[in-house]
Amino acid sequence: MFVDKAKIYVKGGDGGDGVVAFRREKYVPEGGPAGGDGGRGGDVIFVVDEGLRTLMDFRYQRHFKADRGVKGRNKSMHGANAEHMIVRVPPGTLVLDEDSGEMIADLTRQGQRVVVAKGGRGGRGNTRFVTTANTAPEIAEKGEDGEERNLILELKVMADVGLVGFPSVGKSTLLSVVSAAQPKIGAYHFTTITPNLGVVDVGDGRSFVMADLPGLIEGAHTGIGLGHEFLRHVERTRVIVHVVDMSGSEGRDPFEDWVKINEELSLYNEKLKDRPQIVAANKMDIPEAEENLREFREKLKQAGKEEMLILPISAASREGIQELLYKAVDVLDSIPDEPILEPTPDEEDRKVYRYSHKDEEDDIVIRRENDLFIVESPSLERVLKRMQLHTQDALLRFDRILRNRGVNEALRKKGAEDGHFVRIGDFEFEFVEHD
Question: I need a labelling partner for 91 at 20 to 30 A (CA). Which of 183, 337, 371, 433 fits?
């Protein structure tokens, strides 16, 4: 089974907690602070593996969560950082953030890697909070939460040559006779509903990867039929071999078929019309094909396309196949080695949202519900999540943060008085006026 789209959840590991500890050694009755920092949580990293061809593995495993960092220790020892989680993906994988629409990565090369979910920082131990005013602080931080995301993975087949054309024109037959691939072949439309790949040995020491792609129909650029499920794979091919049924079976006009397929390609992505293309005039073993080929060439000339490369072949009898392979590999040799990777119109229109902590520093909203004051501030909520508010020192530090950020003053302006309650995130406390 070929799987070319998957939805998964990833989460970086949480950071380890810092600790409050003091030196407890013989003959050192008043040892100083000795609480170590927590270790960093592991990242979730995607790595390209050429041995993979589908997203099948993500059909069965949809959640990927890295390990958390180790908690800090006494004697100022830091907790160990967690190992990163390595997730292998096939070349041609597009990684999208499901919530924001951000394109995170376009993974095309062997060994290419990208961090899709960062691990959280480790919390600081009490050795980090020593000041001249407080030489023995009982303050430590919790580890930061790891980044979490819902991702969409889309696979665009990576092939040197892509076979395109209407259903039942002989694409699968052609792939089967030039490679060891065994695509499903049948005398009905849409025999191929998923891409098939085959390695083609030209015979002169050169080879390339050929993809038999599902047949197109009119309106495919709008999603009709297999639509976008097919077209996104065409973008990855460096050379297009356009297979045309030159026998005109089913009463079809070969030239009209050629025009319609090219229209669908250019409507989906205008850059595809400039992709090198070879017309494989198939089924030339059928008597009507010779006359149809002459008419086809004449219509191309009238349309100003007489330079189009046309090679008559018969996939069934293998006539002209070797010449087609030589020509395809010659064209490949004449263009850059790297795949031509152009964004689809949908990708060009996507907005990319960047997360910035700095943007939130001054964004504090306070609203009142009876005697409860709710403070909305993502940055303060992050601070609170990391604080261990079970010691007097920690509470005093948090109070200083509120005063420095102007929260206390803003609460007074909203009418807060002694005895009123304030909520920030999940934390609720009583407002106290300072002298």
Answer: 183
